[in-house]
Amino acid sequence: MWRLRDLLNLKSFSAAIWTLLIEELLIFGARQPSLDNRPWSPQLLLISMVSSNFAGSMETRSQRVGFPDVGPFLCKLSRYYISFFDISLQRTEKIREWHIRYGPIICIGPKEVSVATPTLMREIYGSAGGYAKSKYFDHFVAYGERALFAIRPYEDHRERRKVIASFYHDVSKASVENHINERVDRVIGQIDRRQGDPPIDVFSLTSHFAFDIISRLLYGKRHCSRTIGVDGEERQILHDLKKAQLWGPVKFDMPSLYGFIRFLLSLLNCLPSPLHADEDLMRWNYNKINDVLAHSGGATTDVREDSLLHRLLNATNPDGKKLSLNYITSELYDNLNAAEITVAVSLTYIIYHLSENPKWQTRIREEILGLPCEVNGFPSFTSINSAPIMEAFIREVYRVNPGTGGHAERVVPSGGKIYDGIYIPEGIRITASTIALHHDATIFTSPDVFDPTRWLGRTPSQARTLDRSLIPFGYGARICAGKLLATMEIKLLIARLYVRYETRVDPCSKTTRQSMAQYATHDSVPRGLRCDITFHLIEDGNGEGQQTSERVRVREE
Ligand code: HEM
Q: What keywords would UniProt list here (predicted)?
């Protein structure tokens, strides 16, 4: 179905129509290894003449030396070709198709390359390469400051990373585990109260769960959100942010068009809430920080709370100066964003696949029930984290439905690089395609089949081969700073849910295989933007059900 905004985007629309037609005509030619070595044909002549109409899209002759000519012919002519797939939310799937058709190093834009081998992925993201992030990350500048995620130069990033990474490294503390377990209790409380009611949208529920946890870590206990239990402003913002994901590619690829649409709609006084969701969250974060500072009497050195805010207020730059409040506000906003939707998407797909595979629910339940319990009546995160069946299942979900859209663009450093004999000049944008790596048939047999057993019973060398191609959290110098936190949230919730309930996809709801296919948005959200699941209490849940209800009741009283 065409959406209004696709039609509004006339430049991309018309470019796409003729490029789609011509690409198919030229497929044979484009399969040749090098355009420069290919004999001239009338088709090529025609294309090269028409291509000059694509303003600013042809790179100079010197930039083209050695540039990979493998890939869809029209990608080499205009950046609007990949933009079209971006805006129609099909970018990742399209790049995967092109890798299957053309090979592991392909041109996806006049100055843009995608790679799909674990060795090249390691080269561009590894610490040794020193690749900077691309201009794409300028879109994540907030309050006029770059948070860790948006810092582009490799060297600037290294210093800042030490402060943030050390904070998230400390989440292994028992206090954080207790705090996550409290939030799990609240989720269970919600589900119990809704027994017999319509199915539960787990995309929203897990988004509230993730948001409450990250806000506790960012601002501290007194100032965190309570979105799981309370239907307030935060729920509306989170709901709007999900819808805003669908506008992301327009905003990133065609900022002027996006700005114009926003301006027009504001003028008509009918700006839809998803189009100002970012600003709403920014305002919310700004107000929270002011509340915390007001509460501590403006004393920035108050260290009673072990929150990221307090950590940053007490940190210094390498020159010994304090971090600016603007930078701190930007970092907290970025962490809110990074930690909410990614965890919600991952948890939603894990629950969805478990609901489709009841036998795996039983296997995971039996595995968790066999683990030793702590004084609180649950197995610790450390023992849950080493449970192989749950790990295999989660890995398979990450493989087929990774929680990020694969926009981890880097820039080829000065002097250029040679990959598999192909010289790529400096300044070219380069990305490893997560989805192509995760579906590489030479590594993962029958890559389109959902099969968690592929992760079980492997020799160490087989396991290493599979691991090298699985990158849901990125890789190398800029690997996700919140990986440990995300893993704790995901595993503690899944373990506790599946000891207590059986789940099914609600057959009467709109949740289907199609609605659960991923859009190529920044965080790969499910197309339906919801996932309706029914929860059935297991009567003999090893006492866990009874204990949890009791604890939830006592806390809520
Ligand atoms: C399942 C959940 C998550 C997934 C799949 C995920 C994925 C990723 C990926 C792929 C990157 C690398 C981007 C790049 O290389 O350009 C990244 C970076 C980052 N993530 Fe996550 N993430 C998750 C959860 C979290 C959480 C809970 C936090 C906590 C705040 C977090 C904070 C960050 C930060 C700060 C960065 C930037 C790191 C840097 O540039 O050094 N993420 N994440």
A: Heme, Iron, Metal-binding, Monooxygenase, Oxidoreductase
